[in-house]
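RETRY 2/3 - previous attempt timed out on the joint model. Re-submitting the same 240-residue input unchanged.
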Amino acid sequence: MTVTFDPTTLCYTADGLIPAIAQDESGAVLMMAWMNKETLAETLATGRVTYWSRSRQAFWRKGESSGHVQTLIDMRVDCDRDCLLMIVDQAGPACHTNRRSCFYTAIRDGVEVELMKPEV
Amino acid sequence: MTVTFDPTTLCYTADGLIPAIAQDESGAVLMMAWMNKETLAETLATGRVTYWSRSRQAFWRKGESSGHVQTLIDMRVDCDRDCLLMIVDQAGPACHTNRRSCFYTAIRDGVEVELMKPEV
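RETRY 2/3 succeeded.
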């Protein structure tokens, strides 16, 4: 049985948003940001990952200014249909701090530990 | 310089919640759920992952009824301090559908594709 994907079947927040996790093919979780119906549609149509910027209230075409684009390899939706997981090809660092991943700080024994340095 | 982790420095939603992604040591992203200050503190103190159930408005000690507990290996926070990533040891399937991961549905060429079956 073939099920056509219908983006209206996803569960969005009251603001019309859904969290989207980006993971590279090595398994590294790079970042989590938000999408809405329109940015999800653009991401699926173009293969270029586009988020919704909550601070700017605008499309956020990842890498548009930095060049650090994310190319979609595979899009997944979870059982509750309220979260997306994207396997992406990440050009350069994903984080605005120039680190590969936004999750570069560990919490260990009550102390923050920096796991990676900015790329140069 | 040692930075003591202060949970009040995280960015929570208006409901006092923060998304938490669980990933196993193989790199598989298992699920995303929500925490609040109290469940995060319990998770860090006990090493047993505890979420906040939005539907039940109660502590959700993962695996309490199913036995599919998550043991915390490493807790990470992202650059914006509004998302957590946990490396966990997952006993059994993470998903309530009995699949290893909640992200078992891919969206490919406009069609939903089931990537994994429930464990038996």
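Helices of chain A lie at 37-46. Closing ticket.
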